[in-house]
Amino acid sequence: MAEFLDYFRKERLPHIWCPGCGHGTVTGALVRAIDRLGLDKNNIVLVSGIGCSSRAVGYLDFDTLHTAHGRALAFATGIKHASPNLKVIVMTGDGDCTAIGGNHFIHAARRNIDITTIVMNNSIYGMTSGQYSPTTPHGMLATTAPYGNVEYDFDVCGLAKAAGASYVARATSYHVTLLIDLIEKALQNKGFSVVEALTQCPTYFGRKNKLGGAVETLNWIKDRTVNVKAAAALSPDKLEGKLLIGELYSGQRPEYTASYGEMTAKVQRTYNDYKGGNRGCELNSD
Amino acid sequence: MAETIKLMQGNEACTMGALAAGLQFYAGYPITPSTEIAEMCSEELPKGGGKFIQMEDEIGSIAACIGASLTGKKSMTATSGPGFSLMQECIGYASLCEIPVVIVNCQRMGPSTGMPTSPAQGDVMQARWGTHGDHSVIVLAPGNVKECFELTFKAFELSEKYRVPTFVLTDEVIGHMREKVVMPDPKSYKMPQRAQPSTPAGYKPFEADPDGGVPLMAPFGKGYRWHCTGLFHDETGGPTGKPAKADALLRRLDRKITKNIDEFTDYFAEGLEGCDVAVVSFGSSAMAALSAVRRARKEGKRVGMLRLKTLWPFPDAAVRKLTASAKKIIVPEMNLGQVALEVERVVHGSAEVVKLGKVNGELFHPDEVYAALKEAF
Ligand SMILES: Cc1ncc(C[n+]2csc(CCOP(=O)(O)OP(=O)(O)O)c2C)c(N)n1
Fold it and tell me: Inter-chain contact A65–B70, Cβ cutoff 8 Å?
């Protein structure tokens, strides 16, 4: 591997994340997957929204775009559509991606546009200090769920698959080797790819729910998961309340920018001497 | 190819102006009365290798345009009231991050869903102050179909040159009206060009003269590897919480527009020399106003017309000049007095400002402005 820190803007370190936060682990996994594939640094655009997780892009040495809360995928769609040769990667939080940005998420999946999305899911709004998110499990505590979360959480991967993503996988900041492998595969998929990385927020999620520190919060995440391969041999009661990790879906569907390119090529064959539009009607001279 | 003469609709002329300026990317969401622009872009752009996308909402539309612009492509979206409201947060993003983008807002009656197919001019203040925080934008207001072409073209020039979100504020009548347009020979166009750095070595994405300079913009994907954030940032693009840096950034963004006002302020004037009464208007209201002014002038009244083509930054100097002779200034507009407020601020009591607001979803009739003129004399 190239020097790990060569992928970082060293002058921007140290990062803002709390001790024990899992976002750094996920960021590291992305960098390692990029390195393994030997992707050209100058051809990658990293896009994020707003949140602790979205701060990751500012530390990384690529063209990086830290956008508005929930909008990373919409900005990324513009980048990829306008310049399809760029490798576009989105780093987003559970709130950023599935609450305020939920609409862009399902539509990016529906288009199957070639963007790799890493959802850093810590089951909480970290940046605003611990409100419940669409992925906070039912009954868990948050600053806006002081009596336990009344709502039920999204299955982010199920949502992505149902909406049309062509590669869907889940890992955690505990299962780092798996996470790197899955991101590597996601980066190779020509289409909309989602890797959900369950990650610990000891400061707000762990402490509020009396899970202990970073290690205990990480273990709590680990204990919620079962590898999709192992799951095949387990009885349904053993899988009750568990989240599957591993590659959950991989399929082939037409990719948006490729389809648009084909349509454009056809249109251009018809209008091969296009001079910037010819609208309006001729005026009657009489 | 020489110049061509065409009969076209305002929305059509906006589209043609954008294409003439080198539009490469359009993202939008359908909304009356702007939708024709999206429809035409979906048809025209692929012919020249450009890109169209219908996004899931207007927030996504402006976001996608900003993303496309960051890769160096000239980008535009078009919308109307409710959609313009949804775009506001990202307009602030484009303003702070200095990303060129053009927005056509074909105004309709608001607030809320309002009267979707009726003209209005109620977004004047929103166009200036719609997003939170002090910020810079430029707003142009065509008064006829020909100007839809010219001012959309100009919006690209200004947006690319000053790296600022630029709006073309039309309305339902201007957008749907059909008029003769003389389109210049495409060979005579001076294509709007964004100033770019020549080498990544030592590139600082937000480095510029603190007194209103415009930094050079590197497209993404060309080895510059720069950071763009909606947080306050220093010259390197990195977020900063330093009060001095924040202050310098916001003041530079303001100065880069205000110091160049004279370069792009544009208006139409008739009979202002020595007038006793002046009419200040814009867009489709100005059509009725001008006809009333001409009628009064034929009757020997000393009345003049100032039609604003640049709405923001507000053309203070042009309005202030009116007070050299005018004792009264009548401001017909399809709202409850938004431009009139600015006129009041500028003349500062040295002339009486008459707010002639119309908010019933109908155009002004020349008689209404004529009646106001009669009363003024
Ligand atoms: C429009 C808007 N609404 C609300 C906020 C406040 N806000 C900032 S980050 C955030 C939540 C972030 O949560 P998540 O995406 O899960 O990321 P995390 O911080 O947990 O990594 C919120 C609500 C904002 N910045 N913009």
Answer: yes
